[in-house]
Amino acid sequence: MKLYFKPGACSLSPHIALEEAGLKYESESVDLATKVTGSGANYLEVNPKGYVPALVLDSGEVLTEGPAIVQYIADLAPEKKLAPPNGSIERYRLQSWLNFIGTEIHKSVTAFFHPLSKDDWKAAAKLNLERRLGHVNQHLADKPYLLGNDFSVADAYLFTTLGWMKIINFDLSPYPNLIALQERTAARPAVQAAMKAEGLV
């Protein structure tokens, strides 16, 4: 398998999942501005959408969209418990969290990076982040991870998005449970390995 990523972007989530799963893989960075990969290839030939992540399977097929990719990775190593079994109510809760993080947190942060973003858009996005992160903070009041005691691919995605808060100057101090999850996740050896590979530590 081969993961295409941009350091620190949402592709960090499947990068963490690959390390947590202990799977053999290659990785290659992408310049999203030029759509050129680290080896000089045209990334649009890999993923016509033009953004990361993309995972090229051993069969040559390409998977895109982070929530789909991380579940695929988790299912390759079920003994790691990165995702509950397919068909279980817990699996649907995982999918619910992946969707929530993608649409309510990830997309809200987009307002701070988009070159055409106006102040009113950023203000609305900040308000949404305050509400949504407050919800997650409350959820984590009595558990170490989103699904309970076991680290999952949803935690990897949440950790990735929380890392962007410093970049956009969003204060996480009112959300102590999010800070605790961020620190707990950052200490995991697989997370350290993925971040080191991306030049983030």
Summarize the topology.
Blueprint: E1 2-5, H1 12-21, E2 26-31, E3 36-37, E4 54-56, E5 62-64, H2 66-76, H3 89-113, H4 119-139, H5 153-162, H6 176-186, H7 189-197
Parallel strand pairs: 1-2
Antiparallel strand pairs: 1-4, 2-3, 4-5
Helix pairs in contact: 1-2, 1-5, 1-7, 3-4, 3-5, 5-6
Description:
- It is a single chain.
- With 201 residues, the chain is of the alpha+beta class.
- The chain has two domains: 2-81 and 190-197, Glutaredoxin (3-Layer(aba) Sandwich); 89-188, Glutathione S-transferase Yfyf (Class Pi), Chain A, domain 2 (Up-down Bundle).
- Helices cover 48% and strands 9% of the residues.
- It contains seven helices and five strands.
- The protein has a five-stranded mixed β-sheet with strand order 3-2-1-4-5, with helices on one face.
- Helix 1 (12-21) runs antiparallel to helix 5 (153-162) and helix 5 packs across helix 6.
- The model has no long low-confidence stretch (mean pLDDT 97).
Would you identify the CATH architecture of the largest domain? Answer: Up-down Bundle
- CATH class of the largest domain, named Mainly Alpha
Measured between the Cα atoms of the first and last residue, the distance is 24 Å
Mean pLDDT over all positions: 97
What composes the largest sheet? 5 strands, mixed
- Give the proportion of residues in helices: 40-55%
Beta-strand residue percentage: 5-15%
Structural class: alpha+beta
Order of helices and strands: EHEEEEHHHHHH
Total number of distinct structural domains: 2
Count every helix, treating DSSP H or I runs of 4 or more residues as helices.
7
Side-by-side strand order of the widest sheet = 3-2-1-4-5
